[in-house]
Amino acid sequence: MKARIHVTLKNGVLDPQGKAIENALKALGFDNVAGVRQGKFLEVDLAPGDAGAAKAQVDDMCQKLLANTVIEDYDIEIEG
Amino acid sequence: MKARIHVTLKNGVLDPQGKAIENALKALGFDNVAGVRQGKFLEVDLAPGDAGAAKAQVDDMCQKLLANTVIEDYDIEIEG
Lengths: 80, 80
Hints:
Two copies of one chain form a homodimer. Chain A has a domain at 1-44: 2-Layer Sandwich (Mth169, Chain: A). Chain A contains two helices and three strands, in the order βαβαβ. Chain A has helices spanning 16-27, 51-66, and strands spanning 2-9, 33-46, 72-79. Chain A has a three-stranded antiparallel sheet with strand order 2-1-3.
């Protein structure tokens, strides 16, 4: 069983890393880029079990360790 | 028009950051974690246009800047 987690900066939080990527893309000639936001993507392998319980557990992981909920949002998908 | 890009380490490439997260989760009591892989997630805003052309362009961005294709895979989704 696998959890796919996206951790992204909340809207309104400055993203200097995304801005740097945007500038680099423009310098390479990609002129139609209007903005870039960078986030994290995590794949967590879990022992087999109930999908609902797994989702609750991964939510707990995000709250405790994986995301800084002051400035970041997270999104969880459970597979298999 | 928005491109969602996942950049992940290829299978077989060591992921020390993922391993550190796995160890931290286990230290917090999440004993059923079997593995963690960390990747990057990018959202690129593009000027409106043809989805096929946008995908080709984002593929070019990944090859040139966003991914290190020696050790990383990437996956592109075009929205709206």
